[in-house]
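Holo prediction. Input below; ligand is zinc ion.
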Amino acid sequence: MWSLPNIWGGSLAPVPAGTPILPPVQAAITETLTEAPATSTSTSAPTATVTRTPTSKPTFAPTLTPTPSKADIKRVLIVSFDGLRPDAIEAAPMPNVTELANGGTYSYTSATTIDYPATSPSHASMLSGLCMEDHGVIYNKYFMYMGYSKGVDVFDLAHEAGMRTVMIVSKDKLRQLAEPETTDVFEVAYGEPAIERAVLPQIEEGFGLMFVHFAGGDNRGHKYGWMSGEYLKVLREGDAVLGKMIQALKDNGLYETTLIIVNADHGGHDKNHIGTLIEDFRIPWIAHGPGVVQQELTRLIFIMDTAATAAYALGLPLQEDWAGIPVYEAFGEPQIKVHEGYPCKT
Ligand SMILES: [Zn+2]
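Structure of the complex:
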C-alpha cells in the first residue's frame, strides 16, 4: 500500500506590491562579519560591519515572473488523437503537439495503452484510471444497452467538485465513457472543422475539465494505412485545431493556469491496430502546464495514468481501485509509486 499524497488546493495568497519575487542569489556571495566585542555597556544596538563581496557573477538572472507551480492549475484539458503513434508527431508534422512536448514532460517510447488496444476500452481506461475488467467497456461499438463505463472516473470527480465538465468527441460510441449527468456539455463533432467549431466556444465559456477527441488519424489509418500520407495529413489538421485551442486559452487568459495532457488510445500499423505489434500499443504521453518540468520520461506509463494525473492536478481524490498512478514527476515531485509491469489482468 502507499499513502495518498498531500493534495494542494486553493489559490496562492496575493503578493503585496514590491515584494521580491526571488530570494537573493546566495551561492555567488561570500560574507565576512565583524562584530564589535561585547564589552560595551552601551544600551544602543550592537554594531556590526557586514561586507558582501561577490566572488563571481550570479549564474542566472532573476526573472520578472515567478515560476508557475502546480497549485496554479485551475483546469485540465485532455486531448486524445485517436490512433496517434508517437513517431507520427514528427512525421506529420504536428508543431503544436511538439511545442507542448518540448515545453513540458513527455514520453514517446515508454507509454502504452491497455492490452486490448481498441478505441472504446482504451478511452474508458484513459478517463477512468481503471483496467478494462473494472470499467467494463469490453466492447468497441456503441452498445447503449451496456450502459456507461463503471467505477468512479475523473469526470465523476470533477463534476462532483462543481467544475464545469465538457466532452467533445468525434465518435458517438464515446458517449459510453461518462454518464450524461457528469458531463455539462457533451457533443459529437465529425471532422476537424466541426471539432474546432464545437470546442472554441467551450473554451471561451470556461471549464474545469475538458476532453477533446480527434478521430481523424484512426479513420484514415484504417482506410489508407498508418503513417500513410492521408493519415499524416489529418493529424496535421487536428494539430492545427489544437493550435487554435491553445490560442483561445491564451485569448481568454486561461493558458497559464491550464494543464494540457495530450495522449492517444492506441497506435496502429498497416490498416489496423489489433495488437500484434508494439506500434499498436505504444502511445505518446505529454503534459504541459503550470509547474510541469521540461523532461522526457522513459519509465513505464500507462493510459490509466492520464485520469490519475488529471485528478491529482485538480486536487480531486485519487481512487483506491484505480490502476492509474499520477505522473508526479511531471510536476518535479518524487514518483512515490511506479508501475512494476502491466497493472491489469486483461
Ligand atoms: Zn481508436
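The radius of gyration is 24 Å. That is the main takeaway for now.
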